[in-house]
Amino acid sequence: MIILLTVLAVLLAAQTIYLLHYKAQVRDIGNQLHFIMQNGSFKQVDAQLRSREMMTLIRSCNRLLDQQKKADRQYTRKNEEINATIVSLSHDIRTPLTALDGYLQLARQAEEFSDKDRYMAQAKSRIGQLSKLIDELFLYTKLQNPEYLIEQEPLDILALLQHNLFAFFDDFSRQGTEPELRLPDSSVRVNGNIHAVDRVLANILSNYFAHGTGSLSVVCEEEAERVRICFANRLRKGERVDTERVFNRFYKEDASRGVRSSGLGLSIVKSLMENMHGQAEADSEQGMFVIRLIFVKARKE
Most CB contacts within 10 A, which of 4, 45, 274, 284? Predict the structure, then answer.
């Protein structure tokens, strides 16, 4: 009987010590969490007591901490993007406005009607640039809304491509080049929206005239369920393109070149293609810059 009581007393004492240690460990975890939150520390919670329940608690705490750190990094990155966007927008809007004001002042001071007409024509050109920039900003903002959906229908992608190439006929003539085309003989139908596809093709061609050199190669290839259109041109000597960032908003490889561009053109291309369940890819090698558009092929009725 005495032995049994002694054993029970020892067990009770051990249990009490264990509970006190367990309680101290929980208090320590609380202190660690408080320190991490107060100081923004990247430290993780740890414990000396390695019971199954304690380890489950520690893992849960560390998962929550990891999620919070990830959210903090995303918030910081988003904040930086917003600040960069504001700076870029301020510059892109201020530049044509400043030029517009200058030409209007020159037109007001000019005595000859021919000079007034020339300055007013330049002012009108700056108004057009500003209008285009605002239009691109409006479209880009709409495309960032996940609920914004583009209505689609089967359409002849080759007809739209040829229409857009013809629309840039004067630009090709001024440059003294002709596009090198490799297209199927018969029509190719894809799922898309005629206005969205027109905008995609126009933005890619505009990007070529703003940044490319040499002839533009356009190749269309049909697959079982996809249609690929590749636009390829040579880069200017010494120019490099970061193909990982080329579709980012306001991306400009060399802002000092003075090319009038919002930096939204290719970002809009990618957003429109994804909204139509397609893809836009970019590649750069051996002095060539390539943009690939991948459309979903329309089913034959």
Answer: 45
Nearest to 196, CA basis, from 273, 266, 278: 273
Angstrom distance (rounded) from CA 127 to CA 93 = 11
pLDDT digits (tens, 9 = 90+) for 2-58: 776 676 666 666 666 666 667 777 777 777 777 877 877 778 877 776 777 777 878
List CB contacts of 182: < 8 A, sequence separation 6 or more.
217, 218, 219, 220
Q: Provide the pLDDT for residue 263.
A: 65
pTM score, whole prediction: 0.65
Rounded Cα distance between 128 and 231, Å, is 27
The answer to whether 192 and 157 are in contact (CB under 8 A) is yes
CATH code of the domain made up of 74-143 = 1.10.287.130
Sign of the Cα torsion 237, 240, 243, 249 reads negative
Q: 153-296 maps to which CATH number?
A: 3.30.565.10
Tell me the CB-side half-sphere exposure of residue 63, using CA atoms within 13 A: 6
How far separated are the first and last CA of the chain, in Å rounded? 93
**Number of C-beta neighbours around residue 144 at 10 A:** 11
Q: What angle do CA 290, 78, 136 make, to 5 degrees?
A: 50
pLDDT in tens, 165-181: 999 888 888 888 899 99
Q: Could you tell me whether strands 226-235 and 153-156 are parallel, antiparallel, or unpaired per DSSP bridges? A: unpaired
* Cα gap 44→42, rounded to integer Å: 7
Confidence of residue 221 (pLDDT cuts 50, 70, 90): very high
**Do residues 176 and 144 touch, judged by C-beta distance below 8 A?**
no
